Amino acid sequence: MGGEGARRRADYRRYRELVEVRPELFQRPAGGIEILLDEADIAAASKVVARRNRAKGLPPASASVGVLVEDAYILVMRDAVRFPDGSLGTHNRAMYTNSRGVGVLALYRGKVALVRIFRHAVGRSILEIPRGSVEPGDGMEETVHREVAEEIGGRVARMVHLGRSLCDTSLSDGGLDLYYAELDDVGGPQPAEGITEVVMVAPETLAGMIMSGEFEDSHGIAAFLQSRLRGLLP
After folding, report:
1. CB 72: neighbour CB atoms within 10 A?
2. Which residue from 10, 25, 37, 45 puts its CA 20 to 30 A from 162's CA?
3. How does pLDDT run across 214-228, given as a tens digit for each residue?
4. Which domains does the chain have, with CATH numbers?
């Protein structure tokens, strides 16, 4: 985190509050990366990182432990940690407020329905499979029906659960339950969802797009592979 963000210290008071009210966020199995909660251990880890960061021209705040971002969608923290080899350091992690979501490889008349959507984080439009969060009180299958309807104006006739896909596990807990779905209807793009185009491609065409790097959606690639391995796609 550079610029002003690097100079702003993490919110340690809020971090300690979370240790008390959400202890599950700080529990880790033995043998992995241990989150340090003792004040002396935290100070020691921060000192190690501050020394290393100073050599890189980074300000002292870049080694501070605490909450970096907290809003309605995401919680980002910097923890003091002990690595499996015994060394001390800090580690950032981002957790979604709602970590339950679905991604749908939707097939209509033998073609896969993809959406072209602008993603703020990467600063450009990319092709993806329809996806979305599971709303409170809803189930996975209800969410599949809703997201297909909202994003591509489609109606699901049949679906198969493919398993779960994780991405960017070095930083985030983001993941999706993946589904294969056969549609009996499909509509146009939904501008309200930030979608500019619905792109229909044959499975072989999509395979080529994956090989060439044109299709970069990791959840979509996982859903495509799962569907083929299960014999759902030609």
Report:
1. 6
2. 25
3. 999 999 999 999 999
4. 3-96 (no CATH), 101-229 (3.90.79.10)
